[in-house]
Amino acid sequence: MSRFPTLPNDDLGLSRRVPADPVEALRKRMYWDRFYSDPDPKENLPLTTTELASIRRHVLRPGMTTAVDVGSGWGVLTTALAREGLRTTGYDWSPVAVEQARELWSEPQLSFEVHDFLTDNAPRALVPGSVDVLACRLVLPYLDVQRFMTDARRWVRPYTGVVYVVVQVWERQPEGYFRGYPNSVIEGLREGWRHSERWDLDWSGEVTALVLTGPYGTEKRVHPAPTIH
Predict the structure, then answer these.
(1) Is 75 left (phi over 0), alpha (psi -120 to 50) or beta?
(2) Dihedrals phi, psi of 227, to nearest 5 degrees
């Protein structure tokens, strides 16, 4: 049985991004509605051609048909996946973000829906074994990591389904910035998958990417690939 990462104590501040109750969740959704309504928002880590190239190399495989983007925001990554030929749905808990994404993009096989993965049940379309690529880019610290990763293992296709995670590395963040997860927690996310890869998305190692492939089934366990530097 896989081991889920345990978040450190609250003195690290990890709990501040996960709402403690429905009222706080509403406040946080209102914050993101204001963020996406800002005419000049400060996006934390825009999708680059370099990151897209790494997704093509490490995430996408022949025969993949379905992708889901959790916390899709303006839908840049969602649209990029759709342009790779995948039927892609972007989910975000901000109605403003979803509305703007729908106005910005009109690619075939692309859709955007409002959904809160923290407090709501899974969308009806997310049935077990239905997803080839599940992207969670800079969103995992807003979720219940244990619940979400348990669900992710069910949603992706056995042996071949991929979860793509991007998260800030706690030890590498400058003072005053959101700290993300400690390296030990990020490494713990790699447990329970047939294959995993990891690489940094910037020269300083402040943000890291994980590709987690294939929840374990009845096949013999294989060792994960070495970390990419």
Answers:
(1) left
(2) -65, 140
Yes or no: say if 88 and 64 are a contact pair by the CB < 8 Å rule: no
* Residues 123/113, Cβ–Cβ less than 8 Å: yes
Those residues whose C-beta lies under 8 Å from the C-beta of residue 68, and which sit 6 or more positions away, are 88, 89, 90, 91, 126, 131, 133, 134, 135, 155
Question: In angstroms, rounded to a whole number, what is the distance separating the alpha carbons of residues 107 and 171?
Answer: 39
Which two structure tokens, joined as six digits, stand for 27? 């406040």
Find the DSSP H helices in the chain.
22-37, 49-58, 76-83, 95-104, 145-155, 183-188
Instruction: Look at residue 90 in the predicted model and tell me its pLDDT.
Output: 98
Q: 25 φ, ψ to 5°?
A: -60, -40
Tokens of residue 152, six digits: 């992710």
Distance CA 198, CA 193 (A): 13
Name the 3-class secondary structure at 46: coil
- Mean pLDDT by runs of 10 across the 229 residues of the chain is 44 51 73 80 82 97 97 95 97 94 94 92 93 96 89 94 95 79 92 94 93 71 41
In the numeric block, which tokens belong to residue 199?
A: 């690489």
What pTM does this model have? 0.84
The first and second tokens of residue 32, run together, are: 């993101």
Amino acid, res. 210: L
Question: Residue 101 carries which side chain, given as an amino acid letter?
Answer: A
CA angle 175, 180, 182 (to 5 degrees): 95
Residue at 109: amino acid letter:
Q
* C-alpha 65, offset from chain centre: 18
